[in-house]
Every structure is written in structure tokens, then in C-alpha cells.
Amino acid sequence: MSTYQTNTSGDSSVTPQVSLTGVVERITFHSEESGYTVARLQSPRVRELTTIVGNFANIQAGQTLQLQGTWKEHLQYGQQFQVIKYSETKPATLTGIEKYLGSGLIKGVGPVTAKRIVAHFALDTLEIIEQDSDRLIEVPGIGKKRVKMIQRAWVEQKAIKEVMLFLQTHGVSTTYAVKIFKQYGEKSIAIVTNNPYQLSEDIFGIGFLTADLIARNLGVDPASTFRYRAGIKHVLGEAAEDGHCFLPQPELLTAATTKLTTQEHTSTADAVLEVLRTMGVEQELILETVEDVPLYFQPSFFYTEQNLAISILKLLERPQTVDLPRVRNWIERFTQSHKITLSPEQQQAVEMAATQRVMILTGGPGCGKTFCTRTIVALWKAMGKKIALAAPTGRAAQRLSEMAGIEAKTIHRLLEFDPATRGFKRGVDEPLPHDAIVVDEASMLDLFLAHSLIKAVRTDAHLLIVGDIDQLPSVGPGSVLGDLIKSSRIPVVRLTQVFRQAQSSGIIRAAHQINRGQYPTLETISDAPVSDCLWHSGGFEPEHGVQAICELIRDFVPSLGFDPVTDVQVLCPMTRGIVGTRNLNQVLQQLLNPPALEKPQINRGGDMLRVGDRVIQLKNDYEREVFNGDLGVVGSIDSTEHEVMIQFDNREVIYDYADLNELGLAWSISIHKSQGSEYPVVILPLYMQHYLLLSRNLVYTGLTRAKKLAIVVGSNKAIGLAVRQNQVGKRYTRLPARLGGNTSSTIHQS
Ligand SMILES: Nc1ncnc2c1ncn2[C@@H]1O[C@H](COP(=O)(O)OP(=O)(O)OP(=O)(O)O)[C@@H](O)[C@H]1O
């Protein structure tokens, strides 16, 4: 039996503490994050169920609890028992045991199996599972495989409980406790006690602040070098999340000093500098001094940037001998037979693809990048080259396949990612077998992916990098496409002419206007719109915007023949706020996928995830082969196996409950996450509440995700501000300098 203290602030001085015993009948609400729980308890000899409220680590229906707390009168819900402390005893009645076993506590045992087990072993059930679990084979319908599964799950849940108890007392939520356990197993407590900051390196979702809280609860000295090192790395990690490959010393010092100062401890720049220098000497960080400014890199960033530059220079070194008149002849015959005319810029690009090993093709929407790429692919085919097409995301690869008429792969797949080694099979030692490679949506290439790709390209192969430089930079660190162009080392063709077919599109016109810093032409919404690029003022307040978005999705969009559930994507500049993704997801879920009896759902940290919900993957998961930004739909929820099935395009992928924080609702997603994808209809809320994030390339990227219809919702002021703002999102990188490019300052902000 274990005793747990809950965090509820029961005012015991006013109402006396009393004891209460009972069996948990059902859980009304449980927050995985905080453990805050509302449950219904059946007490012996009491007819009515009691509502209990408090923080619980791992509460399950069927548990027998002994509680201490106070009675409270809740204005809305009446009398409740506010739990201060609780302990658990094993259930003692047949029904209690059955409920406990079947509550989902053990993977592999649902209510039906629980009934069978209890019918066989009666009151000895729990003792047998604990001490003589091989006997489970005696239960009809349970085979050897299931026995093994139950044995494993039983041991795991016991160990989890222990780890939970330890972590809860040190301020960690139950969700993270499960993740910590999954990562470290039985070593969890030892690792956390030894170095709580390890968690922030190993576990997705645990950052320095959570680790710091645990460390504080464990009594780690706030002035310890140990803590300072973790704080400095954390600041560099945060900078990487903002896209930087390094930080100059002054910025790093300021940020780390602030981060390391707490109520009990004041950190100083001198103290941080001392630790920073040691980290440099010990190569825990790489120090590079440029123009007298010390720059600090995480080692992997430094070496990757350096090696990427070396790989590119190597590709550029190999000369290419081509018979240019023959190429021109081929282009003439090709364009004549296909009855097309290439613009001079396009002609230049096609010739360059034959004569240069590496080149970049850039330009805005409708300028014919795809058209040109198709011609280049045809030329390469005619030259007898073995060709590969790739893009950073599944969606972008799919689009490229459709447009180019040959199979395109994600870069991960092209490079043959191996989940076992967490590395790519293709690389310097085993390069790609292709003679010519096209990589599309190159604005999404971050430092690491670009390096993995380029080092796998044979030095005698061709590489065509296609991308729109005005789009948002990659989610990951670096600004590779921009840097490659800036270095002036790689030949670039910029397509600038918008083709007639594209000129009629209001979306394309608005995108080019935004790029030039002009207020875009948007048609005010009406019942019979002419343009495909519309504007709805969205009222004065963000609340009105939410209402407007709902009405657009419910009434307007279907009136134009679009499906409100599958065709529309709401893209927001940010997560927080009333018109942020978090709130809109709640509202749109209610509108588009409301609760229903036939739709199972699970509570995930206070948010519901329901069958039919649109979801987005939030990190690269190489084992499941699902990548950051992939969209799917909740297909089914299995409360016995603790698993959720997500349908991604044509693939079903299973998630354990504990891994559900890899997913977020996607009725509304951030513009950043939408890169590389296109949707029939895009709704783009832009409000002054977003002003810190509003920028030209953000709105440009959001708008150009729309294939058939874009609706901007929000104030003119916010749209105007975004269009004028061209200076945000600068990133620290040294790639242009490493390529030996003509950069005025070598400490580069791309
Ligand atoms: N040389 C050309 N002659 C005739 N039409 C062209 C030519 N180049 C492009 N187009 C047409 O212009 C339109 C836009 O071209 P394309 O789709 O290749 O642009 P893009 O730069 O790839 O745009 P996006 O970035 O939006 O995908 C298409 O309808 C295409 O067929």
C-alpha cells in the first residue's frame, strides 16, 4: 500500500479533515499534465456515489482508495470531497477486482478478459497475477502470448507506479513520468536523481525549466556548474529552435544569465562566462572567434555546417563537359514537339541543368518552376541519366510526383533512413546511385537534412535545388537555400515572369504583391465572389474573428461546393490567443467533429482526442515513419490496448497513449507547420494580437498554401503591418562564409 499526498489546497483549518474509503466507480476528468482529477467514488453502505476532487498520479476505475480530505460545497456541482492525501489498497471484492483489472490498467486486459480471469481465480486473482502468473494460462481464452503480455504489463505498471510516485513528489506530471519510464525503464529513478538535466536532452517535451524544477526539488545547488552547463546548453537549444546555428557570446551570456536567475539565486554574466569558457576548452561547445566576437556552437551544429560547406564545394569542383549546341538543339526539338515556348529565364535554367553540376532554381508562385523542372527532367532523361526526385515532406513529395510524372520520395526515404541506427544508409561511403537529383521545396531544408542529402550525392552527379526563397525558412536550424544563394558560389536562375495561366489567380497576384511589400488585392467577401482571394474583416475583436471563421466554414465554404471537413485548413500565425491554433482547435473540433456516442475519445492533458479528429505530427518519428507536419485523422481508439490508430493518407499508424503528445489537433495549424503542403481552401486569420510574428514571408507562405480559395480574416492594419515587416526571422549561420562567398560581414544573419 502506498500513500500519496495530493496538491489540492484543502483549507483544513476551516473544515476538519475527515477520512473516506471507497472504490473508484469512474473517472469524470483526469488531466495527464497536472494529475487533477474529478472521480466518482462508491463508499461501502452509501447508496449515492461521492464526487472526489484532487491530484492523482495514476487513478483507475476499480481502485480502492482511502482518502483524507475535507467536504466542500461546490456552487455548481454540490457537495464534493476535496482530497488532501490518499492511499491505495488492493480491491477486496470480486466486482472491485474485476473493475480494477479491466479498467485499462494492464495492456491486453479489457473488461471481458478481466471478467474471465476473476471468474476463474475469484478473490485470489491479484495474488496469482503477482506471484504465480503462469497460472493465467488456466483461464479459458487466454493463450501463452497473452499471458506473457499480461506479465510484462503487470511488471511495467508496478514499476511505473513507483516511478510515478517518486516523480510526482518531485513535481513531474504523470504524462512525463510515463515517458521517463519508457526512456529509462527501471533506471529512471537513478538517472533522474543523478542528473535531472539529462531529461531535457533525452525526452521530447521536457525542457530545461521542468528539469530545473525537478533538480530544485532534489536539492541541486542553483549555483552548481552542473546547472549552469545545462542552462547554457538550453539557451543554445532555444536559439536553435529559432533557427540559429550559433549565438555570439554577448547574446548567449545575457540569455543564460536571465535563465539561470531564480527567486533564490542571482546569476551573473561573469559566473556564466567562466562556465562557458570551460565548456569551450573541453569542447562541450565549439568556440569560433570571428571579427573578435566569440561565437558558440553546439558541436553537431558546427561540424555539420562545416561539412555541408565542404560537400558542396566538392560537388562544385568536378568540371562538367557538355556539348552545348547539342543541348540547345534538343531544347529546340523538345519545345517544338511539345508546342511550348520557354521564357529566356527558363531556357537559361534548362541549359544550366546540362552544363552545371549544382544549380538553384528559384521564383515565386506561377513563375514556372515546375514547368521548367519538368523540361529539365526530360532533358536529363534524354541524356540517359538515372534521375531521383525528392522533397523534404511527404506532402511535398506527393505533389512533385503528380507534377513531374515520375515517382518522388521524401528525402528520408531517398536516403534510406534506418530506424535501428537512426541514421541514413546513403552517405559518403554509399552514395545515391543516381546521376541527377532534383530536390524541391528546398526552402524547407534545414542544416542537418541538407547535409545528409548533399553528402550522399555522387560528386559526378547533377543536383537541381528548387525552392521559393520568399517562403518561410526551414522549421529546423539554418537558412540553407538563402545561404546557398547568398554565397554566390552556386549558379542561380531566378524566374520572375508570372505566366498568363497564373495571372488570373487572385492568390498568385496577392502573393507577388505581398512580396513587393504592397498591400494585396483582396476581394471583400460576398455571396458570389469573383476572385479566389477573399477578405473578411472578422469584426473588431478576435472573438468576432473566431465566430467569422466558424460561419465561413459552416455556411460560406460549402456554398461554393467545398467540403468543410476535408477541404479547409485554418492557418494561424501563432498558437496562443483567441485566434491562435490552440483555441481554434477547440472551437473547430466542436463545430466539425462534436462528441457523439459512437465516437470514442480520450482525454489527453485536458484536450479531447476523438475518432474523426484531424491531427498533426509534431516531431519526426523515425520508427513510425511519420514526420513533423504530417497530417492524419484519428481512425480508432482502443481503450484496452491503450492505443490510438491514426490514418495518414493510405497508411494506418498505431500510437501508445504515452506517445500521444507527438500529436496535436490540426483543425487549425500554424503557418510554419503548413510549409510544403497545399490545401483546396485556406483560411488565414491575421490580427494585431499576432503583431510580434506578423511578417511578409509568413503571410506569403500562408496564402500560397491555398490551391483554389484563400480567405484572409482580420484587420487591414494587421495585413498592412505584415506586408511591411520584412526584417523578422533573421538567423545566425556561417554557411555563406564557409562557402567562401562574398559576404560583407562573416557573422551572418541570414
Ligand atoms: N514557358 C511556359 N509556357 C507556357 N506556360 C507556362 C510556361 N511556364 C509556366 N507555364 C504555366 O504557368 C503556370 C505556372 O507554372 P508552374 O506551376 O510551373 O509555376 P511554379 O513556379 O511551379 O508555381 P508554384 O510555386 O505555385 O508551384 C502553369 O499553368 C504552367 O503551365
Automatic annotation (TrEMBL):
Enzyme Commission identifier(s): 5.6.2.3
Entry superkingdom: Bacteria
Binding site for ATP: 366-370
Keywords: ATP-binding, DNA-binding, Helicase, Hydrolase, Isomerase, Nucleotide-binding
CDD domains with a match to the protein in the record: DEXSc_RecD-like, SF1_C_RecD
Protein name: ATP-dependent RecD2 DNA helicase
InterPro entries: Coronavir_polyprotein_1ab, P-loop_NTPase, RecD2, RecD2-like_HHH, RecD2_N_OB, RecD2_SH13, RuvA_2-like, UvrD-like_helicase_C
An example Gene Ontology molecular-function term: DNA binding
GO biological process per UniProt: DNA recombination
Span of domain ATP-dependent RecD2 DNA helicase-like helix-hairpin-helix: 156-246
NCBIfam families found in the cross-reference section: recD_rel
Catalyzed chemical reaction(s): ATP + H2O = ADP + phosphate + H(+)
Function, as annotated: DNA-dependent ATPase and ATP-dependent 5'-3' DNA helicase. Has no activity on blunt DNA or DNA with 3'-overhangs, requires at least 10 bases of 5'-ssDNA for helicase activity.
Domain ATP-dependent RecD2 DNA helicase OB-fold positions: 19-91
Chain ranges of the UvrD-like helicase C-terminal domain: 666-713
